[in-house]
Amino acid sequence: MIFGRVKPLDAILATAEKRGLERTLGAFQLTMLGIGAVIGTGIFVLTSEAAQKAGPGMMISFVIAGFVCAVAALCYSELASMVPVAGSAYTYTYAVMGELLAWMVGWALILEYAVGASAVAVGWSGYVVGQLRNLLGIDIPMEWVNGPSAGGYVNLPAMIITVLVTWLLVVGTTESARVNAVLVAIKVAALTLFIVLSIPMMNVENFQPFMPTGMVGVAGAAASIFFAYVGFDAVSTAAEETKNPQRNVPIGLIASLLFCTIFYILVSAGAIGSPLGAQPVRDAAGTLLAPGSSEIAARCQALVAGGALEPLPCSREALAHVLRTFGWVKIGNLIGLAATLALPSVVLMMMFGQTRVFFTMARDGLLPDKLASVHPRYKTPHVVTVVTGIAATIAAAFLPVGKLADYSNSGTLFAFFMVAISVLVLRKVDPTRHRPFRTPAIWIVAPLAIVGCLYLYFSLPLIAILVLPVWGALGLLIYFGYSRRRSYVGRGIIDVVDDPAMQPEIAKPLD
């Protein structure tokens, strides 16, 4: 039976009980954790993309994306509190829906993590190029900071940062909590400064027309900037270490998402109200141009060459560009510097997450044992890290940030969709099992998460919608051609190998 291979939840829970984690986190700590995990990716990178798709209506897009994240996060929390072990949504699905769907979720998480890391790397590239030009007067030829779709050869800075992060992960150099806290402070301070300077000077006339591309454009922008919220699951995965999780987890989730949504709306309002405005760029005939295309790149160059300000949808460092337009040139450069410092940590954490999902899948026998091998000196999963790094580098070299974010979102939305279904299934088949956190109003919240994920998914560009089934079909070929007959669960081996004691840094390779 295809759906019959379920990884025993009792065995996974037995592993979780060995952790002995102390419950020390309160609502405030969880909220700060969520804010730190979320801010710093999409808001620095995708504001211009949202402006091209929705114009000033991108403010509504942030609300829609934030709401879908909130209901998905509540579903995520219930499973995270019950199955607090490695593997994220992949492990949850394995325990509830079976091996095939777990494989599909794990396969989709490649889009979330590896492709997401590429998107952030490309966004970082735009800020670095701006910093070099404005601070040092160094102009990198555009052919070397754009992929072929935008009229270039490769995005060299994006390649460099992904290779560097791959090397750091191989040698085991990860940021400490203190460094991460400093980076969070830098990100929040930079965006707060942007709001304080831009909101008082905004021109309300720039908000008309508010929805130049209609609700379709607003939904498309919401589907893209969903990427700006990825990371909130850091709150739900901390449920096992939270005091009174039934109360504090939803507070931490909703408070962090509400804070970030309000933050994002204020940032977008400041950008819209600037002299740049936020109206989409059109060609000479008035046709809306696709973000990240060679056509919009050529149109932007023509506008600037004609003496016009570079429009917001054209900018690769949107927030810094807005402040420079207001006359705050040095502060705009500081905003750019903040993004330059903060975004590599996001690339690192996304690639770290990808390697750990791969590692867990290899420990379950679904991927080659070699991927679970550990470097004898650095005690890191060097093979899977290098494989992930190569894939992320290639994607970052040739694809624009908007397309990468859309591809990443398609995988993320599928994973969240499966988590919401898993919560409902487990409530039906095992209603008496202990749940440290229970999703409130589950029969309302989970269906809202399912419908919301589907709504955002089908609001993505057609190519991004098609990426998921094509990628999934490739995954099914690998599963039925290789993984199914090598699965430990399929062979009757139910020993739980995703015990924290078996994490890559201290684990031994499988025999």
UniProtKB/TrEMBL annotation:
Its main location: membrane. It comes from the Bacteria. It is a multi-pass membrane protein. One of its GO terms (molecular function) is amino acid transmembrane transporter activity. Pfam families: AA_permease_2 (PF13520). Keywords: Membrane, Transmembrane, Transmembrane helix, Transport. The chain crosses the membrane at residues 27-46, 58-79, 100-130, 150-170, 182-202, 214-232, 253-272, 334-359, 380-399, 411-429, 441-458, 464-482. InterPro entries: AA/rel_permease1. It is found in: Membrane. GO terms for cellular component: membrane. This is Amino acid permease.
